Amino acid sequence: MTIDDDAALIRPLRPEEAPLLEDFLLEAVYVPEDFTGQVPRSVIYDDPMCRAHFERFGALPDDRALVAEVDGRVVGACWVRTTDCYGRLDDSTPAFAISLYREYRGRGIGTRMLRRMLQELREAGYARASLGVVKANRAVHLYERLGFRIVGDGFDETEWLMVCELAAPE
Questions:
Q1: pLDDT tens sequence across 7-31
Q2: What is the number of other CB atoms lying within 10 angstroms of the CB of residue 165?
Q3: Is 139 helix (H, G, I), strand (E, B) or coil?
């Protein structure tokens, strides 16, 4: 299946779609390429910092989410929160989560979602955004191309904490 990145509609998450964030958080769990098993769904429920990415989404004032839709089906999500989750820098910096179903990766859809969310955060007056990413994840290069820089280890030594400055240069 060939998907042109322009075929994906990027739009705000509808409130009734918030449960999809659980599915997309599971998709966001880094899986090494040589892993052949199934990631258990319990990984997103057993870890409070994972749950913080989706529990009561929409209840916090900084909750924002976009989805990618292809042929009427939501195939990806990009969302931010300022809560105690992975990728958290501080209380005022939105932390990203993003993922796409595997068959839609590598087609520019995630880049479009990230760019749009970064623009929305700029327009809303945020100074920066953050994310946590496993050091071995190839997406590190995508994040760097979009303006994120590594500021140190994330939650532990396997993860980078990355920050994107959103303020316009003087």
A1: 899 999 999 999 999 999 998 887 7
A2: 12
A3: helix
